[in-house]
Design goal:
This protein is an alpha/beta fold. The chain has eight helices and ten strands. The protein folds into two domains: 254 residues, von Willebrand factor, type A domain (Rossmann fold, 3-Layer(aba) Sandwich), CATH 3.40.50.410; 37 residues, no CATH class. The strands form three sheets. It has a six-stranded mixed beta sheet, with helices on both faces. Strands 1-2 form a two-stranded antiparallel ribbon. It has a two-stranded antiparallel ribbon with strand order 8-9. The two termini are 44 Å apart.
C-alpha cells in the first residue's frame, strides 16, 4: 500500500488498472444512475425580460422595473455544474483487509468510480484526505489528469497521523467549501462522536456517508488464543476466540457501534451506503442511487 515499497511503474500500473475498471463501469452501468440524481438542481440568474401575463410575481426585478418604468422579470437557467468533494479517511485502520482487498483499496476504487462519474457529468471534483488531522486538500477541478491525481493520492498518500477524527475533516470542509456541494464521506467510521460537525455539514451540503467495512472486524473466527492490535493506537489485547461468550460480546460491541452510527446519520438526515471489502460494491451503489432518484421524484 505504501508508495515507498513500490516502483513508479508499479504505481502507474495500479492507477491505470483502476482507471480502466472504473471508467468501464461508468460507461456501461453507473453514469446514468449518477446523472439522474446529480444533474444540477440549482438555478442561475441569466438575464431579464419584459413581464408577460402569467409570469410569477416573485420573479419581477424591481430595480430594473423602477429604472425602465416597465415591469421586467428575471430569467433563470438550471445550474448544470456541481461541485463534488470526496472526503476520504486514510487512517491506519484502513490498511486492514481480511480478503485480497484492504478497506483503503475499496475506498479508492469507489472514490475513483464517483470521480469519473462526476467528470462525465461535467462536475468539478475535489479531495480531502484525513486521519486525526487534515492531511491533504486538493481544490475541485475538472479533467482526467486531475481525477487520476486524486486517485493516486487516495491510494498512495502516506499520512502523518494514524487515528481517525472526522470532526476535524468536517470542520475543515465547512470552512473551505462555502457553496453547497455534493459530499461523499468515505470512512470505516471507527472514530469518536462527530455528530455536532455532521449536523452543520448535513445542512450545508448534499451529504452521503459511505461506510467501508470488513467482515472480519465484526465476526471473530474460532481459532483459539490470538493477539489483536489496534492499528491506530498500537494497543494490544489477547483474547480467546474459542470462547463463545467472547465472540458474542465482540459481535455485540460492533453491532452497538454500527447502530449508534446509523442513528447519528439518520438524525442528521444523512444518506448512507454500507460496502464490504471483497464484495462487489456496484449493486449497493446502484440500489442507493435508484432509491434516491425515486425519493427525489416524489418530493
Amino acid at each position: 500500500m505504501e508508495e515507498g515499497r513500490q516502483t513508479p511503474a508499479e504505481i502507474l500500473k495500479k492507477i491505470r488498472t483502476l482507471e480502466i475498471k472504473t471508467r468501464g463501469l461508468v460507461e456501461t452501468a453507473f453514469a446514468g444512475d449518477y446523472h439522474s440524481v446529480f444533474k444540477g438542481r440549482g438555478m442561475n440568474f441569466e438575464d431579464v425580460r419584459e413581464y408577460q401575463p402569467g409570469d410569477e410575481i416573485r420573479t419581477i426585478d424591481w430595480n430594473v422595473t423602477a429604472r425602465l418604468g416597465t415591469a421586467y422579470v428575471k430569467k433563470f437557467t438550471e445550474e448544470r455544474e456541481l461541485t463534488v468533494i470526496l472526503v476520504v479517511d486514510v487512517s491506519a485502520s484502513g490498511n486492514f483487509g481480511s480478503t485480497t482487498q484492504s478497506k483503503r483499496e475499496l475506498a479508492a476504487e469507489v472514490a475513483c468510480l464517483l470521480a469519473f462519474s462526476a467528470i462525465r457529468n461535467n462536475d468539478k471534483v475535489g479531495l480531502i484526505l484525513f486521519t486525526d488531522r487534515v492531511e491533504l486538500f486538493i481544490p475541485p477541478k475538472k479533467g482526467r489528469s486531475h481525477t487520476l491525481r486524486l486517485i493516486r493520492e487516495i491510494l498512495f498518500f502516506e499520512p502523518q497521523g494514524r487515528g481517525t477524527e472526522p470532526v476535524l475533516a468536517l470542520d475543515y470542509l465547512n470552512n473551505i467549501i462555502t457553496r453547497r456541494a455534493v459530499v461523499f464521506f468515505i470512512s470505516d467510521f471507527q472514530a469518536p462522536d462527530f455528530s455536532r460537525a455532521l449536523a452543520v455539514s448535513g445542512r450545508r451540503h448534499d451529504f452521503i456517508a459511505i461506510h467501508i467495512r470488513d467482515e472480519r472486524e465484526k465476526i471473530l473466527p474460532n481459532i483459539g488464543i490470538i493477539t489483536l492490535e489496534d492499528a491506530e493506537t498500537g494497543e494490544q489485547i489477547e483474547i480467546n476466540t474459542a470462547d463463545r461468550g467472547t465472540r458474542g460480546r465482540f459481535s455485540d460491541l460492533v453491532d452497538k457501534r454500527e447502530t449508534d452510527l446509523s442513528r447519528t446519520l439518520r438524525r442528521n438526515n444523512v444518506d448512507a451506503i454500507a460496502l464490504q471489502t471483497g464484495k462487489d460494491y456496484l449493486p449497493a451503489l446502484r440500489s442507493f442511487f435508484k432509491q434516491r432518484e425515486h425519493r427525489l421524484s416524489i418530493r
